[in-house]
Every structure is written in C-alpha cells, then in structure tokens.
Amino acid sequence: MKAYSKDEIVEQAKELAKMISGTEEVDFFKKAEAQIHKNENVKRAIDEIKALQKQAVNLQHYGKWEALKKVEADIDALQDKLDSIPVVQEFKSSQTYVNDLLQLVASTISNNVTDEILISTNGDVLKGETGAAVESKKGNCGC
C-alpha cells in the first residue's frame, strides 16, 4: 500500500468537499437557505426571537424568574410558529440531509481506515482486532 503524506490526504479531503458541495442535497440546502433570507415572515420571527432571548438573559441575570418563564414561553411559541412555516421546514429538512451525508462520509472513512489497519496487520476484521492482538492471544492460550 502506498504511503500518503498529510498534505496529500488534506488535498483529497478538499476534493471530496468539492464533490459533496456539488450534490443534490447541498444544492437543495442552498436554495432553501436563500428562501429563508427572502421571507419577511421568517425574518420578523427570527428578530422577535432574538429580542426575547436578550430579554430572557437580562431577566435571568436579575433573578426575575416569573417574567423569565413568560418570556421563555413566548420564545417557544414563536419558535413553534417559525417551525410551522413551510420554507423553514424545507430548510431544516435540507440541513438534516446534508448532515446525514456528512455523517455517512465520516463514518465510512472511519470504518474503512479501521478495516485497513486490521487487514494490513493480519488482524481479524470481524472481531475488530489487530494482528498484534490476535498473535498475543495465541501466546496466552498455550497453542
């Protein structure tokens, strides 16, 4: 197996990032995100939530617990209203798709690196043991 430098691996990772950026999932995310920024109802709801969040921080700082509960309930209600807007639902769905794709890529890389290590050391892929672990067990059993 060819030995790769850290720089070569980073370059390949950059190429992979370009490939991911060109997927339908990322394209859908970009379109949904653009729609979020164009929607006045969404902007207004986000601004209201931010203002209430600042209020909540101040109320918490001054120990105004009852007022804080009301503001937090208002934030939750606004968040529910925001989440019910179709363009927000599409945006969140697109975020999930992109995150799932990134998680799939990360776990695929991780699993394959682990398998390559096990195989290259004459280990047991099914048991997840390197060759050294397999050999040390042989010595311990008196075989």
How would you portray this structure in words?
The protein is mainly alpha-helical and 143 residues long. Helix 2 packs antiparallel against helix 5 and helix 3 (40-61) packs antiparallel against helix 4. Helices cover 82% and strands 0% of the residues.
What would a concise description of this structure say?
It is built from 6 helices and no strands.
Termini separation comes to: 32 Å
In percent, how helical is the residue content?
over 70%
Structural class: mainly alpha
Name the average pLDDT.
93
Strand content: under 5%
The coarse silhouette is elongated
Strand count, sense and barrel status of the largest sheet are: none
How many beta-strand runs?
Answer: 0
Which consecutive residue ranges, at least 5 long each, have pLDDT under 50? Answer: none
Radius of gyration: 25 Å
- Helical segment tally? 6
H/E element order: HHHHHH
Topology at a glance:
Blueprint: H1 6-21, H2 24-38, H3 40-61, H4 65-83, H5 86-120, H6 131-140
Descriptive labels:
mainly alpha; 143 residues; elongated; 6 helices; 82% helix
